[in-house]
Design brief:
- With about 450 residues, the protein is an alpha/beta fold.
- It folds into 3 domains: about 5-110 and about 125-215, Up-down Bundle (Four Helix Bundle (Hemerythrin (Met), subunit A)); about 220-315, Translation factors (Elongation Factor Tu (Ef-tu), domain 3, Beta Barrel), CATH 2.40.30; about 325-445, 3-Layer(aba) Sandwich (Rossmann fold), CATH 3.40.50.80.
- It is built from 16 helices and 11 strands.
- Helix 12 links the parallel strand 8 and strand 9 (about 385-390).
- The longest helix has about 35 residues, at about 70-105.
- The radius of gyration is 26 Å and the shape is elongated.
- The chain starts with a helix and ends in a 5-residue tail after the last strand.
Length: about 450
């Protein structure tokens, strides 16, 4: 994660945890294990449901937050790690509930003696108390379901289609867990500052869950279109698709991406836009590489004249760092945002304020027509192209980039490609003194 995301991730847990601890200092002086258990169940439960609510809100693809986090890819990365944190806390919450029961059954602990429960005069408290049993039972099953769904989401061996359909159940499990939390939160907490804050994030999460269930996430940014051209590049297992859009598309910047839906059963998939925007000719073009169950065989699934829904644009990988020197690195299908930027630059023409640019494109596969188009786009845009074919030229390294670009210390770096390769290059330039947090821009194009 970026430094900003790391701060947000840990800041969320620290702030939420401190608010609860300040309001419940008696946790530090609990007189028995079972009193400590009660506090820990409340503590872990509050943090878990707050995180789940934040996760649901992030799933709305909020544009205002995308700009602040540096792109929707960063939003999804925070969404993912908050999900992992929420899962860990949920498991801990469940263990605090169940493990003492196991210990009592094994004779390791003695259950405390409970006297008669006092009569509850407050009608609201009495009503919630009557819901404790169903809230506990439903919450336990929702926990099992949510755990399974998060594991499926994180386990990339699970096919995308299975992930997509199973993920539709997350809002249902979340709503059950909100009911569980609302009923079982310590009643006195609702009248403290924690109560309104927790209610606010849970309401936001419920709103997001409702939009997800009715298929309205991103609905305001969808435009209908029609495929007007297809170009197949079998040597690199890629397909370029050109879509003419109906009115409503707001335009896009080079480097942004969109979600395209050609099959309602399959659903929306994200693709980088490889075309410059021209309001006189409202089109977008995508290049899809055969990388998985959906993209494999697209050339046979799509056809000219087919209706497509496009949602977007999203992303902040837009090359506007204000520097007079830039280094672009496009690995494999990661070349796509640079294609759009070069087309955009060629359309605008020569600009004295334009940065000097070196583009490094490294690829394992060879398709001469595709490479010729990249070279032609680079010439028209005035970009210096360094083409490296792995088998012929070896692997691209930080040393090779620094040798080819002597003034690299003045440059802003823009990388799109496999995340592991980007991480390696970023670490390499950091070791050589580059402020990578400010000047190494990486598209984290992973939605799982």
């Amino acid at each position: 994660m970026s430094r900003r995301n790391v701060l947000l991730f840990w800041g969320f847990w620290i702030v939420a945890g401190l608010i609860w601890l300040v309001l419940n200092p008696e946790i530090f002086s609990a007189s028995s294990f079972f009193r400590l258990r009660r506090h820990m169940m409340q503590f872990t439960g509050v943090l878990a449901i707050a995180a789940m609510s934040a996760i649901m809100i992030l799933s709305l693809r909020p544009v205002w937050l995308e700009r602040r986090l540096g792109g929707l890819d960063k939003v999804y990365r925070l969404h993912k790690w908050l999900g992992i944190g929420a899962l860990a806390l949920s498991v801990l919450h469940w263990l605090w509930s169940e493990a003492p029961k196991w210990a009592v059954g094994a004779g390791l602990l003695t259950r405390p003696t409970r006297g008669p429960r006092p009569e509850i005069a407050d009608p609201v408290r009495s009503f919630l108390s009557g819901l404790r049993h169903p809230a506990e039972g439903l919450g336990e099953w929702a926990f099992y379901a949510m755990t399974l769904l998060i594991v499926i989401a994180l386990w990339k061996l699970v096919p995308y289609r299975a992930f997509r359909y199973s993920h539709r159940l997350v809002p249902i499990a979340f709503l059950v867990l909100v009911f569980h939390s609302f009923v079982l939160l310590d009643y006195d907490m609702w009248t403290t500052p924690l109560g309104p804050l927790l209610a606010l994030v849970m309401i936001g999460g419920c709103y997001a869950a409702f939009l997800s269930l009715v298929g309205r996430i991103g609905a305001g940014r969808r435009v209908e279109g029609e495929i007007v051209e297809m170009r197949n590049y079998p040597g690199v297992h890629s397909l370029e698709t050109v879509i003419r859009l109906r009115p409503g598309w707001p335009g896009h910047k080079a480097g942004q991406f969109a979600f395209a839906t050609s099959d309602r059963v399959e659903g929306a998939h994200p693709y980088t836009i490889v075309s410059a925007w021209d309001p006189e000719d409202p089109q977008v073009a995508f290049v899809a590489k055969e990388l998985g169950d959906h993209t494999t065989g697209l050339v046979d699934k799509l056809r000219v004249g087919q209706k497509v829904t496009v949602e977007g644009p999203y992303g902040c990988f837009t090359f506007d760092d204000g520097r007079s020197r830039q280094v672009w690195i496009g690995a494999g299908i990661g070349i796509t945002p640079f294609l759009a930027r070069m087309k955009e630059m060629a359309a605008v023409g020569v600009d004295a304020a334009r940065p000097r640019i070196d583009l490094f494109h490294t690829t394992r596969e060879v398709e001469e027509s595709a490479l010729e188009r990249i070279a032609g786009d680079a010439r028209k845009a005035g970009v210096t192209l360094h083409l490296l074919i792995d088998e012929r030229d070896g692997l691209l390294t930080g040393d090779r980039i620094r040798e080819a670009v002597p003034d690299w210390r003045e440059a802003g770096f823009w990388f799109c490609g496999p995340s592991g390769f980007g991480k390696t290059l970023k670490a390499d330039f950091a070791r050589h003194g580059l402020d990578v947090e400010d000047r190494f821009h990486q598209e984290l194009f992973e939605m799982r």
